[in-house]
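== Folding the chain ==

***
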Amino acid sequence: MKILFRIIPVLTFVTLLVLAPSVIGQSEFDWRRYEGTQLRGIMIQGPWINSAEPFIEEFEELTGISVDLEILPEAQAWDKIRVEMQANNEDLDLFYNQTSRFGNEFVDNGWVVMLNDLINDPSLTNPDFNWDTDFPDVVRDGVAFDGQFIGIPTDRSLGPMLFYRKDILEEYGVEVPQTMEELGQAARELWEASGNSIPGFVARGQGAAATSAFSYVMHEFGGLWEDAEGNPTLTSPAVLEALEWYGSILRESGSIGSTAFAFPETTNEFLTGNAAFTIELGVNPSNVANPEVSNVAGLVGYSVIPLGPGGEEARYANPCPPLRPFALSINPFSPDQEAAWLFIQYITGFEPQLAYLQSGRVAARQSPWDSEAFSDSLTDDARDYWAAQSISSGFCPGTRGFAPPSIKDTGRARDIIGQVIETAIIGGDIDAAAALAQEELEMLRTREQAGN
């Protein structure tokens, strides 16, 4: 069923952008060559589609192309996309792609259009799209599979950061931690000094969801998901040390029930004022300042994630493996691929990306970051956040992602690793749990290599 995607713009800065055509040079480029085409896409509910909404109607007016989007919860969207690909459905034209999770699978199955020819065709690509100059190398590399681009990124990956309550640290005389050891000490100290009323640290601890937050800790300890040959390394000393640290700080600093914490629970816990520290990526100035979800407006400080025992070598690994961002991709079974390409260009242009950046998300394009419009829109708190984020987003751990990159079934791999993280949090036998998980990951990789 198609859900017609329309929204009446509200009076925000985005509305002002919508009131005029947004694509420089549009008079020199034939945007109306596919007038009358109807596109259908599947998107996930979330910040990107929220900020992109006002630009859909503008695109339709410019091109004469109508756009119908099904906006679904994340899990439902991924399932539906996969089902439609398996059916070679020609009715789906484009989709939101989590390339870190589906990139290898979709490339191997032939479920995604390689965009290189479209990008390089001057009759189909607006000259102001600036793929080579406005999308940083690390962003373009993230959607490249054997040199072929499978999507246009909407995001660049957030860098790992520490979020802390300035008022709590001041009240109890605690300095902002600079190392993981100091963070552990500070979290436990605040829990005890507050009479067990203020949890010192909250983070994801629920199964697969926990691997995202844990991955940044692991990298600071010098741990990797896999070795140079792609073999899982869950039992390496660095990963085991990181597991011990992560489990003990949650267990000993008052984060009750953290094995039930995924993204929503962790973010809610911090924003409602129930923790002193977190490394949850969803805490950003727009969330902090939103009175509907935040009790801590004006009270949050931002810093790069504390340095672990792995030191600078772990933080800035070289060579740098690509980050796999969210991106917009085209269905290879669609008969309207070129019209879909026009839409993707437009909706990832400067103004939609500026709106996304101003909503508090890490936009893929560089030009919005450098614009006066972005600088002028920042509050003092937001300036602190983006200053720290500009450093953190440059980190380059030795292996990226939330599971071993060589394993295609990322979801299953995260489930396996998540069980070890939960074991660490409850104070179980980490070595035994990691050894069992290591065997499962190795078997999973072996089956995939055998084509099973």
Summary: The two ends are 33 Å apart (CA to CA). The mean pLDDT is 91. The chain has 21 helices and eleven strands. The first strand starts at residue 38 and ends at 44.
